[in-house]
Amino acid sequence: MLEVIIHGVLLGGLYSLFALGLSLMFGVMRLTNIAHGDQIVISGFIGIAIASVVDINPFLLILFLVPCALVSGYAFQYFVLNKTISKDPLPSLVITFGLSIIAQNLLQEIFSANPQSLDSGGLNTLGISLGNDTVVGVLPLIILGCAIGCTFGLQWLFTHTAIGRAFRAVSDDRDIAELMGLSSAKVYSMATAIAFSLVALAGLFQSMRTTVAPTDGPSLLLFAFESVIIGGMGSFWGTFLGAMTLGLAQQIGFYFDPGWGIWFGHLVFILILAFKPSGLFPKTKG
């Protein structure tokens, strides 16, 4: 059971990277990006494509993927999604759903439908022995450390910086924030740029840890969405702990039967929705 808990926490680290960007966009704009999972897959395939042409350390791909994600996220929000932001969530849902369909078909056309992975240089096979036949993978530990760092960084950004105060202001009341001189369009675009950079990290680590396929987007979106809802809206640490809960639930399911893991995670999600719809850790303080 100790091994189950350890692996559940490590899996939760990956899920928290999936969920942080979604939590950021929803928290600032009340916008659910249906294409979020597909953007994770796109980042993974871009890393795979670059590595197939250039012999490069996979971690150096971060230096290319993150800046590109920042620029594309800012532009996508500023020129497309900002026009859909209103009290009616349907326009943004329709646009991001359409983007999801386009992304899946385009990826299948370019890379085929076969799952692919990014060569991590053997890092995904390295492990640290804890005794009693328990081995912890080095790559999952790196992913967990990155998830903790990103969560801490986002919470600090929101609570101790001017841009964080701007995020909170437009989230609480956009009209009053604009009267005080803030440009909601630019603030929203900056939030999406940061969210896309987190997506780029998630996609890179997903392709290194396992495989990515063009049709994986909806399932990754579901894991991210469940992590946010389980944790409860209020802070990024809530999202992080929600991801830990989902990862543990899935690993416990895998412990009993290999076919039960994903189902166990969905079951925990449904139970939390039924008995604590606000989530386990709402308004958690950083």
TrEMBL record:
CDD domains for the chain: TM_PBP1_LivH_like
Signal peptide boundaries: none
Keyword Transmembrane helix attributed: yes
Cellular location(s): Cell inner membrane
Topology relative to the membrane: Multi-pass membrane protein
Annotated transmembrane regions: 6-28, 40-56, 62-81, 93-114, 134-158, 187-208, 220-242, 254-275
Record key words, sorted: Amino-acid transport, Cell membrane, Membrane, Transmembrane, Transmembrane helix, Transport
Record-stated family: Belongs to the binding-protein-dependent transport system permease family. LivHM subfamily.
Protein name: Branched-chain amino acid ABC transporter permease
Species per Swiss-Prot/TrEMBL record: Oceanobacter antarcticus
